[in-house]
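Bit of a strange request maybe. I'm writing a small parser for structure token strings and I need a real example to test against, not something I typed by hand. Could someone generate the tokens for this chain?
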Amino acid sequence: MENGAGIGVAVPAAAAWNFAPNEALLDLTALSVRSVLGRVKAGMVADGGGARAVVPMGHGDPSAFPCFRTAPEAVDAVAGALRSGEHNSYATSVGLKPARRSIAKYLSRDLPYELSPDDIYLTSGCSQAIEIICSVLARPGANILLPRPGYLFYEARAAFNGMEARYFNLLPEKDWEVDIHGVQALADDNTVAMVIVNPGNPCGNVYTYEHLAKVAETAQKLGIFVITDEVYAHLTFGERKFVPMGVFGTVVPVFTLGSISKRWVVPGWRLGWIVTNDPNGVFQRTKVVDCMKSYLDISSDPPTFVQGAIPKLLENTKEEFFNKTVKIIRETADICWEKLKGINSITCPSKPEGSMFVMVKLDLSCLQDIKDDMDFCCRLAKEELVVLLPGCAVGYKNWLRITFAIDPSSLEDGLDRLKCFCLRHKKPTK
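Reply from user aminoacidic:
Good idea to test on real output. This should exercise your parser:
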């Protein structure tokens, strides 16, 4: 054989090799939404006759549905950037300055102070932003405070960098507000930051100005800063309007994470940002910004042509597009809220007001032959071709996360199938 490993050639035993996998990574896959959804769908067999389609209510990507297509102005901006021939080169590590200037102007509309381009760092989506922040903060013995339920990607990145994750509760009886007393009890001299997600994934909540003020005051007293995940900014459809955490940047330094993924419905374009909301210059004095720049020098960048498209994308997208998207999500949230009321064994503590999700409690005592939330979702996928995310994937066992940002008719169909599944597995009354 050409590789020399033919007949008569001894192949060294595996123990002779000097490499081995990073076993920490093997454990972290359990914290991935993709991995959990893969397990949920593993036993699912599509309807042989094609009579029923799979209803994807487990992940936050509505882009496949025609009613959620992105704005034509966004497409034109990207196409124009490509055709210009001006964005085929490497970008600077922090991102193209015109893009950063446009994002600073765009975000400053909601703030009591002006951001500069130097406050903006472009990333390959919000996931890379989380990766960068956790890497920058990591030091021996450090811990970070995370919300439960919450996006476990934060824990995965913290663990990979040797940082301890500690969880404070969100309170379902108070519209998923942060348990402020719990935060204070968890923090110690090694706590570096706390994370909030607003509007909320997975809970669909929207924080008030007053509650965010309490979060800022608490963080300031503890000597930590706030990381605020605002990828669902302005995707609100209830009484509460979105308030950015950066409003309180003079009280406590804030890292704001955002992207174009959700508001423009283009998660595959991979353009996100980290913003330093820090008028007092704390991040500069503590050299956190220098550390972040160093990390960006050795990491990958978002596609240059997408960066090049950002100024026109932000400037030209019409308000009608955003209004249409919110109108559809408001409609699907209403459908979800009303239909869930009629499903036994499932309780929805509060009507969602933002993002694309709602958390519902699963009452296993009403069901027979269902072990836990993971078993529920696997069997639902297999029997009804409906995909939900088990609560264990967001740190909330025996709850479910439902995505309602799909085509309204598909959502109604999926919720009807969910009801049929619960009735079929309902524990008989004595």
